[in-house]
Amino acid sequence: MLNKVLSNKKRFTMISDKSIQHMMLKHYIMVFLTLLLVLSTALVHASKPLLPKEELKKLATKIEAVENSITSIRFEAESWVEHGPSASGPWQKTPICHSKTAWAQKGPDGKARVDMHKEVFEWINGPTPFGEQGYSVSFDGQHGRYVRHTAGPIGEPHPVKRGEILPEVPKHLEHGNFDTGAYYSLPFFDGEIYKFSKIFQLASDPNSEVARELQFTYEQFQEVECIKISSEWHGITYWLDPSHGFALRGKKSVAQYEDGHEELVKFVKVTKLIEVADGVWWPMEVYSVSRPYEEGKPWRRFVYRASNVVANDPDFDENIFTVPFPDGYLIDDKVAGRKYITGQK
Fold this sequence. Notes:
Layout: H1 2-46, H2 53-67, E1 72-84, E2 92-105, E3 112-122, E4 130-139, E5 144-153, E6 158-166, H3 196-203, H4 209-213, E7 215-221, E8 224-231, E9 236-241, E10 247-256, E11 262-277, E12 280-290, E13 299-311, E14 330-333, E15 338-341
Parallel strand pairs: 6-14
Antiparallel strand pairs: 1-2, 1-13, 2-3, 3-4, 4-5, 5-6, 7-8, 8-9, 9-10, 10-11, 11-12, 12-13, 14-15
Helix pairs in contact: 2-3
């Protein structure tokens, strides 16, 4: 009897050992497969070939053709700001918003105009948390104009009736400003230093500084095969969509620290495009996420939607770039060095 019990116990122990070994083997296999998947994924990303210099040169020509294919643009846009606890939200809409009509003309003088029908802004040290204003601003290639129509508490703006003539581009139309669509569109985008066509052209020269600092690869971005332009040194990445006229699909900037870690500064995604001219696509919907500008503040998401886009209008009137001053406005002419009220002799 004892021998039978011992025999059964031994057999049970052997079965238990085999079960444990089988479970451990399955575990090791799963760990191995997981590591293999991670490694293979890393190798795919690491081994993505850089675009050859000759291809960059050809792409520069194609991109330049798109950049020069628009002579003028007019569109309307609505935008607003949302706040969230992190870069992924959840997002809550704030009162901050813009409603505008914008015009821009292609050329070295950068002619542009924005009629801000309504802008709600955070009123720092104001009598109310948010303020509201309406204004028009333009640049005709030589002089700028800024006309303030209304300003005051949100929902209760009062007439201001003031204007300025400036010897330079007004700050509302400065480089990279989103009001004209220049920040998101290829034809009007002038980059941090160069236009994209110039960046590709310089990168095709192996001896140029741009070629040493930037990497050009193909990568899926928002389920679209894009050209990825990245610079580890500057912490900035762009994605251009060749299937939609090299339209800007995304821009990401990160802050880099001495200990090696990175923090997201801004991530822009163009989620909707419309063809406004042959081979030219205009941004119709954009989401731009930015980190808090100071400790304790929320993350911000800027939502931008355009409508009623008209490109290359044959009847386009360049006088649109000189904002008119209505009668009764106090004008500060900083070019001529005088002040006057319109409509008064």
